[in-house]
From TrEMBL:
The lineage of its organism: Bacteria, Bacillati, Bacillota, Bacilli, Lactobacillales. Belongs to the peptidase C69 family. One of its GO terms (biological process) is proteolysis. Its EC number is 3.4.-.-. It comes from Lentilactobacillus parafarraginis F0439. This is Dipeptidase.
Length: 497
């Protein structure tokens, strides 16, 4: 697997889900990120839930959590990498985002919720095939992951309208990469996939279903007579017909536009296999991690929780022969790329709840650095400012900062996994219990409040929650640093003399 990843060394790699250099017009078969989508009838409390790891080309790419106010949103957007320029609509909304710590390579806003409780996550890098790239080449000065959240989320009022806006932009300007883009509101989740420079399709995820998407084109049969569940570029059918792209029956978007390579079978499909093995094991018991026919739409054998999503998005093939943390294992010889690993940068799980007033129904659960050793912090989205320890990330290491304290923990725990994981897992259990307690308490305190009074209450709650979790995280760092130091190479005591 290490050799496969090094295929990117010839390129200038962006420390995010994608390639840094927008000028690269080569569609590669491996990038980063893993997505899970959960319909409202499949979740434990009736919420729509969207989740995505943002991974990187290297282990360190500092991130921060911010609230963007309308007055801070640009009127004219200029992409740093591709040169894409766009005059943005008037009257943007407030929204949350998880951008890079500095914007020298662009914003890379990644995931957030706007003031109308519409959520977006962008993007899941996906693969396509050379026939598509020949018929509809990628656009050198189009837009991509760097840009998508910023030019979309402030201007939409539903998940469906998010698909419509990005579709119109794609058809007009084009993109320099292939991506999966997620939209949700309290009722619907839509997953949109691009193919070539200008073509796309989007599917509404059934309410009783879930999806796990691992850097591959996923959407399967498209029903052109079902506008309630499918949207697509205007000329999609004609384009496919004109270029003889459909090699089978029906209209299977994955088969027509996707790839099916050896690298997919080692880098991508094993992640979907592990997730489906966890949520609905009976359906994959006869399939291997390299199976090329795992379904896009899946159904769990139980209601799905925030903890379930965190478990899968932190997973490393535990309880299988492919776990790189198995004692005595050479991790570089493991055949499959895990979901939870050192290149995780941030995880956003966005939960839109139907059972509380809309003014405080949106929660963005956030974790920084490697998911194997971190925990989620729940943030109410209807606030004006994010907590200091999550907002003020710099490129210098700072153990007071959420990104950096978790990055340090991830480094130590990876190198001393079996020495410190009891401490890490106990911390994770305590913090998730605390997080759910805080939501119950804050919902009760917010009941009946409106306007600025409500926003101030939610912001104070976010601050208190983050302070508690940061304090516990710094204590964990102290504990595991002490343990790991005792076993460091070159140690010596007088008792050895």
């Amino acid at each position: 697997m290490a050799n496969a990843v090094r295929v990117t060394d010839a390129f200038d790699v962006k420390l995010s889900c994608k390639f840094k250099e927008a000028r690269i017009m080569v569609q590669t078969n491996h990038s980063y990120c893993t997505t899970i989508l959960v319909g409202k009838n499949a979740s434990y409390d009736g919420s729509t839930i969207i989740a995505r790891n943002e991974d990187a080309g290297t282990a360190v790419n500092p991130k921060k959590f911010v609230v963007v106010q309308p007055e801070d949103q640009p009127q004219t957007y200029h992409a740093k990498l591709s040169g894409f320029n766009n005059q943005l609509p008037d009257n943007p909304q407030r929204y949350t985002a998880v951008p890079d710590a500095t914007d020298d390579q662009g914003i890379w806003g990644e995931a957030g919720v706007n003031a109308q409780n519409v959520a977006m996550s962008a993007t899941e890098t996906i693969t396509t095939n050379p026939r598509i790239l020949g018929a509809d080449p990628l656009v050198k000065n189009g837009f991509g992951e760097e840009d998508l959240l910023t030019i979309t989320l402030p201007y939409i009022d539903s998940a469906r309208s998010g698909v419509k806006r990005v579709g119109e932009l794609l058809e007009k300007y084009g993109t320099y990469e292939s991506n999966g883009i997620i939209f949700s509101d309290v009722n619907e989740i839509w997953y949109m996939e691009t193919a070539g420079g200008h073509h796309w399709v989007a599917e509404r995820i059934p309410d009783d279903a879930y999806v796990i998407a691992p850097n591959q084109t996923g959407i399967q049969e498209v029903d052109f007579n079902d506008p309630a569940h499918f949207m697509y570029s205007k000329d999609l059918k004609a384009f496919v017909s004109a270029h003889h792209l459909n090699l089978g029956n029906g209209f299977n978007f994955r088969n027509i536009f996707g790839s099916n390579t050896q690298l997919d079978r080692h880098y991508n499909t094993p992640r979907a296999w592990f997730g489906q093995r966890y949520f609905n094991p009976d359906s994959v018991e006869d399939k291997s991690p390299m199976s090329n026919d795992l379904p896009f739409i899946a159904h769990a054998n139980r209601k799905m929780t925030i903890e379930d999503l965190k478990y899968v998005l932190s997973s490393h093939y535990q309880d299988t022969p492919y776990d790189p943390f198995t004692p005595g294992t050479d991790s570089e010889k493991m055949p499959f790329r895990p979901i939870g690993f050192n290149r995780n940068q941030e995880l956003s799980i966005i939960q839109l709840r139907p059972n509380v007033p809309s003014e405080y129904s949106a929660i963005q659960w956030l974790a920084f650095a490697s998911n194997v050793a971190n925990t989620l912090t729940p943030f109410y989205a209807n606030v004006d400012v994010a907590p200091d320890s999550y907002r003020n990330t710099t490129k210098l290491v700072d153990s007071q900062n959420a990104y950096w304290v978790n990055r340090l923990i991830s480094l130590i725990s990876a190198d001393h996994f079996h020495t410190v994981m009891d401490d890490v897992e106990a911390y994770q259990q305590r913090m998730m219990g605390y997080a759910h307690q805080r939501i119950i308490e804050t919902d009760a305190a917010a009941n009946g409040l409106t306007g600025q009074q409500l926003s101030a209450k939610l912001q104070a709650a976010n601050d208190e929650t983050s302070d508690h979790i940061i304090d516990a995280t710094r204590q964990l760092l102290t504990t595991i640093l002490t343990k790991a130091s005792n076993g460091a190479r070159g140690s010596f005591t007088r008792g050895h003399y």
